[in-house]
């Protein structure tokens, strides 16, 4: 690496920005890498690993630091806190970095950024960790399942407690294990512009590893990627980045059979950005449907438009609208309403590994109530006899199963079967007409889908 101190400094600056502004690491990292496109692939990979790893293992790193520091992590200055985490992460998880180098480089950074008076403290803590690296006393199961799982899988204790309330111990271990797995990306092929065979050949030619989808014929899994925008075929709209779990919405909707010659199916996607689901339906249905894709801001609808244009789709209309506000002009307008609702995101921890540090118990309750409001509005847009799809990317029953039960008892809806529309390998995850996919148990994100039909009075 040409300049290890500089790459570490860039990584550290991202971590400090995340800490101070309470933003997601991927957003801050993307901004920095975009500004530093001259960096080599090796340097970009190093910075990404350092930022994402330090963020992902924050709970475990803080536990270790607190064992060997007289000043607890939460009492340190943000810069020093991030510097210590970054140093310990390199020692614990980056075999290519000698422990002594990790310590020395962190001390240099402390001095370089004006913390000469704390350089000794940084050196002392990191050297203590280095001396004890093979005998760190991590919690065991005998110390209690909650602290054990929290430190082992680096997740806040309060979340572990909730997971153990929702699922059995074996399932929770699977979920938490999966949350730490390194994943590539999944793409949905745009068959209007290419074929699976053509796209696979093109990607393989550029040394990108390609694996067939597990549940959808439209899916490919990619790894060994440097920069998403530079993947062959991306700018040409030959694919859309989308997890297989949300691709299941299209077959479950089973909406094409409702099409009548000379007419267009009317589809309303209430929380559509960045456009994965609405573009999937538009792509599959073509001239048989018009899709209205809504979201709350101009920034979000602009993102939908950008993706729609890139994919070459002409049957989508973007509209700025807050799903919490009822739109009387769309009353009983839609043959299908897609309600992929704001949620805690606890099913996608492997992709957004710092969600666990941004969510709170209060927010879990607030999100559940917010979903009820949107579902109430959503029902009014569905034609009698039409379909409502409800989905989230969380595994929290209060946001999923509980809200389905609430909807069936408070709204003019009937539950529709989803089992017949999912691959046989996923049928085990369907219960009471609801599909709950769990990370670690299947080859995709944690995701929830329920299907309703509006009653005809």
CATH topology of the largest domain: Rossmann fold
Q: Can you tell me the residue ranges where pLDDT is under 50 for at least 5 consecutive residues? A: none
Instruction: Give the C-level CATH assignment of the largest domain.
Output: Alpha Beta
Quickly give the CATH architecture of the largest domain.
3-Layer(aba) Sandwich
Taking the alpha carbons of the first and last residues, their distance comes to: 69 Å
User: What is the 3D shape?
Assistant: globular
Helix content: 40-55%
Number of strands: 13
Alpha plus pi helix count? 18
Give the total of domains: 4
Summarize the biggest pleated sheet.
9 strands, mixed
CATH H level, superfamily name of the largest domain: Vaccinia Virus protein VP39
From the helix content, strand content and strand pairing, which structural class follows?
A: alpha/beta
Mean pLDDT: 95
What is the gyration radius calculated from CA atoms? 24 Å
Proportion in β-strands: 15-25%
Notes on the structure:
The protein has 457 residues and is an alpha/beta fold. It folds into four domains: 4-131, NusB-like (N-utilizing Substance Protein B Homolog, Chain A, Orthogonal Bundle), CATH 1.10.940.10; 143-179; 185-241, Alpha-Beta Plaits; 246-454, Rossmann fold (3-Layer(aba) Sandwich). Helices cover 46% and strands 15% of the residues. Helix 5 (78-93) packs parallel to helix 7 (116-131). The chain is globular, with a radius of gyration of 24 Å. It starts with a helix and ends with a strand.
